[in-house]
């Protein structure tokens, strides 16, 4: 470890003597460096943990020592018999008040001897930490060759850095922790809550969190768009060498998780094959293929959820851990059978949009998929997973509220709005009144003959006869869709 003031004072050949009383400052704190300066204020050129060596006493000891103490200087060395014999009493008193250890450097001891001792110990410590990092990295690499590579790597990391290590899975739960029993329920919950936004982001990211077990550094594992988990490492007083080892473990852990992706991809293709067999009506084949690997198919009647969005891959991984029903990828869509709660949960968690069918039998899945797809067209940020019952209950005209229908409707009504922006509203009131001129005229506050003239004007502008039901229905649909 680096030199301390206690070790400096113990070097008989240096002849150093502590001038402040015992208990002033921390004489066992590691010293980062030793620097000499007789500037009135050397703090801009010093760093925390350094020793300052001086030969000239300050004009005003109180503010001088206060600045050094506030800057984090570890100790002050005063060289005697250069400018004066012995350290000024006021300097000793100021150092005592501010908790800054003061020691005497005799004339025969050059400052370079003190600086060299500190520098040698700093260099030795850096070499020792580099050597440790190499040994630790080698031990962790060998651990990666064991059958449970991921568990062995994380366990060895915890042993080497003497800090707790945990892995939060892609589902947001703490999957592993080392050493065993290092994390209680509250600490595990804190890690899961801190990892959740990192996983939701879908991007490689890092963060920190405080727990009952101390502070933890968090680092996502996996590629952007398909994160495999978050590595949590106890980060209390970790130095650069330990950080170097952890960086290597992040790569190894990510590799170990990626090695399972081939099996995951095979399971994903199997799910898609089972789903296509179900849609094709081959129920017996689908059940016989699914049960040994994926488990039994959900019992009918059931609902079908069809979801889409950029985070489909991450949602699929989450379902693989959390869902109890059947799910599969079909192109860019994610299909979930039977587990309504899981579908609603991932729609919210991964910002997906989808639709939910009415209850259906397994032999009616094609119709259920059509229902779910129709409901998906009504999905919003506030209601990401509407049901088909809601869509059907709103009636046929509610299906007109789509961007395509709105564009067609506004194009069809453009002659009316160009001639008189109020004309579409007049026609809407007339049609809402079942085409009865007297009723509509009273609602509009105009004479019925005036209303007839406005309708005739609309017929001329549109080039259509509005006496037929079909023409009126088409105009009414356009008026509804345009708003």
Automatic annotation (TrEMBL):
Positions of the Purine catabolism PurC-like domain: 9-120
Q: Where is the PucR C-terminal helix-turn-helix domain?
A: 426-481
Q: Which InterPro entries match?
A: CdaR-like_regulators, PucR_C-HTH_dom, PucR_C-HTH_sf, PucR_dom
Name of a matching Pfam family: PucR
Its recorded name reads Purine catabolism regulator
The protein's organism comes out as: Leifsonia soli
């Amino acid at each position: 470890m680096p030199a301390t003031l206690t070790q400096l004072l113990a070097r008989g050949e240096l002849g150093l003597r502590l001038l402040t009383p015992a208990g002033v400052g921390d004489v066992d704190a590691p010293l980062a460096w030793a620097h000499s300066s007789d500037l009135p204020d050397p703090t801009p050129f010093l760093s925390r943990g350094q020793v300052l060596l001086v030969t000239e006493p300050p004009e005003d000891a109180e503010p001088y020592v206060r600045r050094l103490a506030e800057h984090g200087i570890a100790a002050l060395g005063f060289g005697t018999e250069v400018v004066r014999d012995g350290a000024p009493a006021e300097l000793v008193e100021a150092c005592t008040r501010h908790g800054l250890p003061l020691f005497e450097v005799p004339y025969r001891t050059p400052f370079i001897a003190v600086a060299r001792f500190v520098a040698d110990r700093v260099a030795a410590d850096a070499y020792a930490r580099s050597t440790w990092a190499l040994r630790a990295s080698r031990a962790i690499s060998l651990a990666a060759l064991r059958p449970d590579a991921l568990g062995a790597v994380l366990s060895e990391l915890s042993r080497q850095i003497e800090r707790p290590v945990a892995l939060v899975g892609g589902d947001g739960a703490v999957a592993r922790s080392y050493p065993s029993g290092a994390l209680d329920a509250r600490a595990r919950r804190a890690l899961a809550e801190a990892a959740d936004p990192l996983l939701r982001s879908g991007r490689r990211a890092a963060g920190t969190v405080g727990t009952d077990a101390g502070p933890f550094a968090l680092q996502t594992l996996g590629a952007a768009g398909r994160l495999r988990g978050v590595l949590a490492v106890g980060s209390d007083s970790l130095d650069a060498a330990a950080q170097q080892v952890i960086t290597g473990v992040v790569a190894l852990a990510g590799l170990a998780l990626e090695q399972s992706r081939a099996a995951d991809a095979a399971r994903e293709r199997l799910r898609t094959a089972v789903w296509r067999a179900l849609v094709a009506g081959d129920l017996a084949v689908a059940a016989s293929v699914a049960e040994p690997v994926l488990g039994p198919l959900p019992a009918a009647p059931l609902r079908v959820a069809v979801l889409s969005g950029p985070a489909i891959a991450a949602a699929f991984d989450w379902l693989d851990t959390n869902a109890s029903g059947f799910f599969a990828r079909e192109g860019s869509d994610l299909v979930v059978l039977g587990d309504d709660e899981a579908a609603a949960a991932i729609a919210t968690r991964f910002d997906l949009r989808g639709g939910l069918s009415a209850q259906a039998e397994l032999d009616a899945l094609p119709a259920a998929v059509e229902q779910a797809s129709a409901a998906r067209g009504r999905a919003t940020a506030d209601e990401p997973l509407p049901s088909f019952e809601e869509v059907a209950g709103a009636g046929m005209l509610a299906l007109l509220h789509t961007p395509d229908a709105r564009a067609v409707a506004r194009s069809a009504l453009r002659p009316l709005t160009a001639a008189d922006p109020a004309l579409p509203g007049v026609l809407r009131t007339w049609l809402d009144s079942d085409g009865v001129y007297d009723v509509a005229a009273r609602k509009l506050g105009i004479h019925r003959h005036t209303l007839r003239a406005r309708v005739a004007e609309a017929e001329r502008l549109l080039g259509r006869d509005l006496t037929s039901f079909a023409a009126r229905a088409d105009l009414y649909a356009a008026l509804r869709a345009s708003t």
